[in-house]
Each structure stands twice: as structure tokens, then as C-alpha cells.
Amino acid sequence: MNPKSNSDTIFSAPIDKIGDFTFDERVAEVFPDMIQRSVPGYSNIISAIGMLAERFVKPHSKVYDLGCSLGAATLSMRRHIQQEGCEIIAVDNSAAMVERCKLHVNAYRSDTPVQVVEADIRDIDIQDASVVVLNFTLQFLSPKDRQSLLEKIYAGLRPGGILILSEKYIFEDNISNELLIDLHHDFKRANGYSELEISQKRSAIENVMRPDSIQTHKDRFKDIGFSSSEVWFQCFNFGSMFAIK
């Protein structure tokens, strides 16, 4: 396949009427390029998810990757898991993502089986889990559904289990918030995105991605009953947190 066909050019030409961003076939086709050029620190987060899974996974437990997209976090965890009897359940509601995720998973042999499921993550039963990952997923759910999903995850985690939550953040201080947004746009410019692409992508995504503040996440974790939570990675207004049961 010509590598150029995998470059993200979705928003490179003027669009008369910009609709809401969706994880459709076009996005799935260019997703690796899009995510690397749009999310600062993404590769570091993926690598560390595998390291955290290696530390927290328990024998004969389940590992969930909720909103798995093409399976980057799933594959990182599978490479690191050394315990016996574990299974990874990777879930996404995009048929295009699930189809490609299955291809990626099947390309590598491993002792840890992976079940790739096309479903709404809000409908998934979480049972006997030692690790659950929400890697830039929660922010796309309606704010009213976030608490209930996290409560379901908490209930399905074993004691000592970990939730890894990567998100885009908003900040309550307006000056800081605007600076971090500007720095993120500088990051995208440095990765070759034009002003038109940045503007049109922002318009498409603003109605479907409504980020929370770090404090909102921490308050939620505490209210639900997690014993410990913290930000372990942040670059500009993107980052990743853990919450331990």
C-alpha cells in the first residue's frame, strides 16, 4: 500500500458544512498518522500502558481496553503480560476500527488471547478485571454517562486493580487553558497540519468531545471509592491518569 494513502488529509480541503467528527472508514484508514500528529506523547502513553499492565495484571484475570480503536494499547499490554490465564477484551463501537484491530491482533502470536468486540462500551459487563484501559475514550461519552461507566468499571475490578484513563483536559484558569490549547496547536503545526486543517478539525470535534478537568476526574475517582489516583503523564492539555481500587 502506498504510504501516502495513510496520511491524514481529511480536513486539508475546505469543507462547506462541517459535521460532527466520527470514527468512520476514512478516519480508521489514517488513524495512526492522525493520532501521532495530533496527540502529544501518544507513543509514550502506549508504551507505559504496557508497563503498567505488566505490573498490575493478575493470573487468570481479565484485561479490558474500552474504546480500543486499532488496538495499540491492547498490543502493548499483550507484549508485557507475563501472567498465565489472562484474556484481553478489546471493545470499540466503530466497525471500521474493529475490522482493522482484528487484523493487527491476528498478525502477532501470543499466549494471551484477545477478544475484539464491536459494541458500545457502556453495554459491556466488566468482570474479574485486574486492568481496565480508557485511552482517550471517556471524553467522547456524554458527560452524564461517565460516572456510571466508571462505577461499573470499579465494581468489576479486583481489589488492587488499576484503571488507566488517558484524556484531553480543560483547565479552570483561563490563561493557562488558552496557553495549553495554543501549545497544542503549535504541536500540530510542527507536525505538518495547516491552519485550515486545525480549524476544521476543531469545529468537527468540539460537539463530540467534551473534556473534563483533572480535578473533576480525581473527584469522580474518590467519590466512586478508588483508594488512590494521580496524573502519571501530561504534555500540554493531554495526559493520562491511574486510579487504583
UniProtKB/TrEMBL annotation:
Subunit structure, as described in the record: Homodimer.
Protein name: Carboxy-S-adenosyl-L-methionine synthase
GO biological process, one term: tRNA wobble uridine modification
PANTHER family, sorted: CARBOXY-S-ADENOSYL-L-METHIONINE SYNTHASE, TRANS-ACONITATE 2-METHYLTRANSFERASE-RELATED
Domain of life: Bacteria
Class of enzymatic activity (EC top level): transferase
Binding annotation for S-adenosyl-L-methionine: 42, 67-69, 92-93, 120-121, 135, 202
SUPFAM superfamilies associated with the record: S-adenosyl-L-methionine-dependent methyltransferases
Family assignment from sequence similarity: Belongs to the class I-like SAM-binding methyltransferase superfamily. Cx-SAM synthase family.
Reaction catalysed by this enzyme: prephenate + S-adenosyl-L-methionine = carboxy-S-adenosyl-L-methionine + 3-phenylpyruvate + H2O
GO MF annotation list: carboxyl- or carbamoyltransferase activity; S-adenosyl-L-methionine binding
Functional description taken from the UniProt entry: Catalyzes the conversion of S-adenosyl-L-methionine (SAM) to carboxy-S-adenosyl-L-methionine (Cx-SAM).
Pfam families, A to Z: Methyltransf_25
All copies of domain Methyltransferase, residue ranges: 63-161
E.C. numbers: 2.1.3.-
Keywords assigned by UniProt, alphabetized: S-adenosyl-L-methionine, Transferase
